[in-house]
Amino acid sequence: MGKMVIFGATGGIGSTTARKLFEQGYDLHLTARDKVKLTALADELGASFTRGDVEVPEFFRRVADDAGDEVSGLVYAVGTLNLKSIARLTPEEMQRDFRVNALGAALAVQSLLPALKNAQNPASIVLFSSVAVLQGFKMHTSISMAKGAVHGLTMALAAELSPKVRVNAIAPSLTQTPMTAGMLSNEKMTEAIAKMHAVPRLGNAEDMAALAAFLISEKSGWITGQVFGVDGGRSTLRINS
Predict the structure, then answer these.
(1) What is the pLDDT of residues 188-228, one digit of tens each?
(2) Rounded to whole angstroms, how far apart are CA atoms 12 and 206?
(3) Class of the CATH-defined domain 3-229
(4) What's the sign of the alpha-carbon dihedral 21, 26, 31, 36?
């Protein structure tokens, strides 16, 4: 069995996914920027790792070299949360959101593609989009644009890489992770957002990791080219109308 490569392994969703896959017996290769957190997680899970930044193209070549010749799965759990009006966004901010969310995902797949095709069974890729892509939320211009590219990337790769590699994505609604801690510090606002969901709470890393672990496994062997909303019903249900 080849390794499972997780980009963004020290983030809330990435680390929870890594632990879940470890519990299921997978061999892991982890990547992240934070040396201390990455080393600690790799030691905990007996994983190999590559430290670096997805904004540096050369980083992906190093990951491919370190991960080895056979990779069974790739989880790209890297993202940004840049909520501003279009009037306040700078070109540099919009370019960074695209580089981190969309271009990084494409380069991760590109760099690991030979190893993914070497997997004994069809390999699996899991990317992360957002509920905001199809819903049109205020202040989400840059992130919706970047994650919309991830949605399109998922569909194109699923067609191009079949049948050797399956490709799916998860589109969360607002999820409680270290990255969102600042915006969720206002208790009243958090409660108001939670009530917008048919399941009236915010998401958590376990919600996302549970589906990621399923999609990366052979249990989902007949699933590809899908973007799954893990969003408490927000993408499809209007409970206050």
Answers:
(1) 888 988 898 899 999 999 999 999 999 999 999 999 999 99
(2) 9
(3) alpha beta
(4) positive
